[in-house]
């Protein structure tokens, strides 16, 4: 496969992205190619200074850069020679099989929807995150940021997306899908959750177990997929990271807590679009970039988006 | 003052509540009386078995109990001889100056609104929580549970409530009030936040500093009051507690992390009603109950609700 990586996106780009790509080379088969999208001169200079062989990469030169603080729609419309516009064009034309970036998240969303587009039958794509459980597995949290005003029918569909993600990536058979809420009883929460519950409890396409509280994220086999609106999901993810970082700085870390380090995973897949798109953390280190590249391969090969398309077509 | 405590409310009541009241006696002046509201026989038996002098308390006998899983409105309407109905009647008649309970939160809210009522000019009361900052202070988080569907105009008013709480309880001069959001730029977040921002930025009655992210809860002097809707606030509070508890169980605790233990504070004040009402954690231990009683005194003496009434009247 051809794994596209936006070299210019991220707080520590292009240095961290190129170094991460060099690290990833060691962990993928020779039949896979990493496609570096960005300023060719910088890429070649960096590869040279690292004694890395440029022939092991495909390089696609881009002139412009979409910055972290660019307005997404404006940037994706006007910066036509930029890393992300070119990247999504490659993805649409299937010259790359996946596109990963630690750059401007909003521009990534706009780019994905305007190029490969949302899967037919899905109302909104969503971002999936995962949090480590104490028993060694992971909880899937969805949506964590695409859609801050998710409607109940969006939440209902996220149940299916999350189920497929848990099945395809974490190999959990018939995963339990819960609606993240402030209490476990039916009728709890805000109007959005109450309405979503009514839709989700009729779902045949996934195993809905009702409302679940946040503590279940960390432990047990009671719930695998946690559905929430993108505002709450993003807030919880940031809060988890903030609290983890406080502990980390204070040396309060053990083997379990180490598994919260986002660098080990790399990024979050944008699910529900007609292509494999991975969105990384702005502060991505080279380790995070390496893992984002490996994650691109895993998500592409899982065929989750194809499976989602099939499932939606059958409803 | 007369400090009312619902003896029957909480997972470990009445044992933990009575023991907590006995502990609190040692820390309040003799001119204050703790009013135990609940089954007199159980209260007297427990005091006796603890070698505590019953004459040091006022006891108000109640026949019925509002259970944790009772439907709030139904229970408060039908169980007219219950701990909470009697308690709020005492509060309304000023026979007690404060009412604290670790029991049914919904019933507490219904009881407060139906008895002493909401302060004139305030659209909705709210629950305030506080989280320890690394520098030794506290962040005020409001609302954390009254109003899961807060409207922008509610959030706007919570800014004032939170500001007064930070001033009166934590003695912070001109506290900085932020809107808790998924990013710090104007225009971030869901529709509710975008609209609330527009209202809050015109506020003269508090010092609005814009959108703030969750990591600021833990550190620095950048923001003192974090405004959010009751659903998000309750979720964040539960998530913080869940994550803290995971760490605690794993022995990852230092002096700062110890300050997250809710038992040290006792409960959360319901702000914006015409009386001092403290809502405790269902799992309150005797230590938590003791501190909830001390907190009742602190909140009552701070006159925060009177101050809020004055501030609203001036707008």
Describe this structure in words.
2 copies of one chain form a homodimer. Chain A is of the alpha/beta class and 315 residues long. Chain A has 11 helices and 11 strands. The first copy, chain A, has an 11-stranded mixed beta sheet, sandwiched between helices. In chain A, helix 1 (15-25) packs across helix 10 (286-302). Chains A and B meet through helix 8 of A and helix 8 of B.
List strands and helices in order, with pairings.
Two copies of one chain form a homodimer.
Chain A: E1 2-6, H1 15-25, E2 33-38, H2 40-49, E3 57-61, H3 72-78, H4 83-92, E4 98-101, H5 105-114, E5 126-132, E6 138-142, H6 152-168, E7 176-180, H7 191-200, E8 207-212, E9 225-227, H8 230-249, H9 255-258, E10 267-271, E11 276-280, H10 286-302, H11 304-314
Parallel strand pairs in A: 1-2, 1-4, 2-3, 4-11, 6-9, 7-8, 7-9
Antiparallel strand pairs in A: 5-6, 5-10, 10-11
Helix pairs in contact in A: 1-10, 3-5, 6-7, 6-11
Q: What oligomeric assembly is this protein in?
A: homodimer
How much helix is in the residues of chain A?
40-55%
Largest sheet of chain A: 11 strands, mixed
Strand content of chain A: 15-25%
Radius of gyration of chain A: 19 Å
- Major beta sheet, strand line-up of chain A: 3-2-1-4-11-10-5-6-9-7-8
The coarse silhouette of chain A is globular
- What separation lies between the terminal Cα atoms of chain A? 31 Å
The tally of helices of chain A reads: 11
Which two protein chains have the largest interface (Cβ within 8 Å of the partner's Cβ), and how many residues from each? A-B, 39 and 38 residues
Which regions of chain A are unreliable across 5 or more consecutive residues at pLDDT < 50? none
Which whole number gives the mean pLDDT of chain A? 96
- The arrangement of helices and strands of chain A along the chain is EHEHEHHEHEEHEHEEHHEEHH
Number of strands of chain A: 11
Instruction: Return the structural class of chain A.
Output: alpha/beta
């Amino acid at each position: 496969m051809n794994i596209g990586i936006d070299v210019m996106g991220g707080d520590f780009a292009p240095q961290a992205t190129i170094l991460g790509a060099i690290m990833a080379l060691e962990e993928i088969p020779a039949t896979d190619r990493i496609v570096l999208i960005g300023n060719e001169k910088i890429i070649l200079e960096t590869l040279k200074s690292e004694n890395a062989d440029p022939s092991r990469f495909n390089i696609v030169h881009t002139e412009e850069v979409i910055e972290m603080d660019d307005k997404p729609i404006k940037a994706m419309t006007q910066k036509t020679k930029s890393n992300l516009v070119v990247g999504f064009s490659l993805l649409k034309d299937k010259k790359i099989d996946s596109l990963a970036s630690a750059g401007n998240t909003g521009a990534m969303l706009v780019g994905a929807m305007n190029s490969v587009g949302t899967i037919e039958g899905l109302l909104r794509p969503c971002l999936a995150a995962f949090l480590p459980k104490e028993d060694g597995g992971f909880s899937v949290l969805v949506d964590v940021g695409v859609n801050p005003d998710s409607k109940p029918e969006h939440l209902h569909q996220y149940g299916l997306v999350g189920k497929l993600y848990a099945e395809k990536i974490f190999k959990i058979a018939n995963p339990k899908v819960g609606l993240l809420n402030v209490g476990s009883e039916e009728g709890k929460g805000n109007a959005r959750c109450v309405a979503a519950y009514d839709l989700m409890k009729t779902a045949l396409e996934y195993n809905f177990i009702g409302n679940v509280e946040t503590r279940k994220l960390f432990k047990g086999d009671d719930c695998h997929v946690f559905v929430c609106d993108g505002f709450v999901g993003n807030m919880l993810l940031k809060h988890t990271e903030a609290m983890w970082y406080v502990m980390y700085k204070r040396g309060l870390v053990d083997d379990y807590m180490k598994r919260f380090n986002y660098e080990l995973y790399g990024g979050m897949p944008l699910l529900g679009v007609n292509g494999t798109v991975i969105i990384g953390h702005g502060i991505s280190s080279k380790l995070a970039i390496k893992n984002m590249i490996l994650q691109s391969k895993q998500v592409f090969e899982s065929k989750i988006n194809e499976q989602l398309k099939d499932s939606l077509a059958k409803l």
